[in-house]
Amino acid sequence: MGQLVDGVWRVESLKNLSKDGEFKRTTAGFRNWITPDGSPGPSGEGGFPAESGRYHLYVSYACPWAHRTLIFRAIKGLADHVSVSVVHPDMLDDGWTFNAGFPGATGDTLYGLPFARDIYLKADPGVSGRVTVPILWDKTRETIVSNESSEIIRMLNSAFDGLTGNTDDYWPEEMRDDIEEVNARIYDTLNNGVYKSGFASTQAAYDAAVTPLFDTLDWLEDRLSRTRFLMGDRATEADWRLFPTLVRFDSVYHLHFKCNRRRIIDYPNLWAYTRDLYQWPDVAGTVNLDHIVRHYHYSHESINPYRIIPINPVLDFDAPHGRG
Fold first, then answer.
1. Which of 195, 206, 253, 273 is catalytic?
2. Residue 259 annotated among the catalytic residues of the structure
């Protein structure tokens, strides 16, 4: 694993562990916003108006954070307005690469560059930090708008509505406080909890992560026994932030990250709910289990030193979900 230090790529061991062996996620460094008229958003600078064809997403099908942005691009009808490049699923010493030698990987369709770090360097030749996806790129200013997935999905949720006519709102104002409360628990204990469990380097750190993870899955199972979606009878941002973790759980997190008390298919409501979201129009096309399984098992040498790719369970995401 490597990172950029003052514009220079350096390969090093995993540094985001605390002294107690607990995994600590690094924060995103580019925090600008696309807005309908280009006015400044909640952070960063202005000058990024919503325009068809102006913006580009660099993503990994394997990465759950990038997956969020692909989902919003799909459900908000933005496929013809925001273009996409997909990295190779392997993330080794060079980080994410634009090697197209894996089905579904596209290479860098804008500049033909070899590495995701080259996009960061194009935006800022002296940049320091991890090279993460998603990357929301402005073709006009040739710079990164944002690499924070939680903020990118909120841009995609509303900034382009005047262009597309798609006014579906997954971040309704009257529900925001409640959504934020649900998001916070799911992010800490589940979205990030699988990583805290899988990358823990002490028993105490693992125990501290995996116990609340399954407490949250139990809480979600109970919640979804009463409502179709997390916030009631309509899908919101909270559902689409949860889905990428659920769809990866049985194939990757259950065994690879030692989150093996139960599988998602062992929870009747959660499993039906996962299928419900998967069958949402255009969402299935954002899920690529070949990339997901390959990435985690091949890239994480510290967990899987022989890089053996398991055969994995056969999961029928298209089975009737009964939650209509």
1. 195
2. no
* DSSP structure string for 153-213: HHHHHHTTHHHH-----SS-GGGHHHHHHHHHHHIIIIITHHHHHHT--SHHHHHHHHHHH
Helices (H), the chain: 64-75, 116-123, 149-158, 161-164, 176-186, 193-198, 203-223, 237-248, 254-256, 268-278, 289-299
The pLDDT of residue 12 is 75
List Cβ neighbours of 266 (8 Å cut-off, separation of 6 or more): none
What was the pLDDT predicted at 273? 98
Residue-wise pLDDT for 105-157, tens only, equals 999 999 999 999 999 999 999 999 999 999 999 999 999 999 999 999 999 99
Query: 195 an active-site residue?
Result: yes
pLDDT of 275-310, one tens digit each? 999 999 999 999 999 999 999 999 999 999 999 999
Measured CA distances, 156 to 23, 66, 138, 192, 195 (Å): 30, 13, 14, 23, 26
**Domains detected in the chain:** 2-164 (3.40.30.10), 173-280 (1.20.1050.10)
User: How many helices (H) and strands (E) in the chain?
Assistant: 11, 6
Q: Which of 63, 259, 267, 278 is catalytic?
A: 63
- Closest among 232, 310, 316, 287 to 63, alpha carbons compared: 287
